[in-house]
Amino acid sequence: MTIPDLMRGVQLVGHGGPEKLVWNPAIPVPVPGPGEALVRVLAAGVNNTDINTRLGWYAREVTGATDAVGSGAGIEAGGWAGALRFPLIQGGDLCGEVVALGPDTAGPAPGSRVTCAINQPMPTGDEPLRFMALGSEYDGAFAQFCRLPADQLFDVSAAPLSDVEIAAIPCAHGTAFNLLTRAGVAAGEHVLITGASGGVGLAAVALARLLGARVTAVASPAKQAAVRDEGAQAVLDRGATPPARSFDAVIDVVGGPGFQGLLDALKPGGRYAVSGAIAGPIVEADLRVIYLSDLTLHGCTFTPRAVFARLIALVNAGRVRPRVSQTYPLAEIARAQADFTAKTHPGKLVLIPPRD
Question: What pLDDT, in 10s, does the model give residues 277-287?
Answer without folding.
Answer: 999 999 999 99
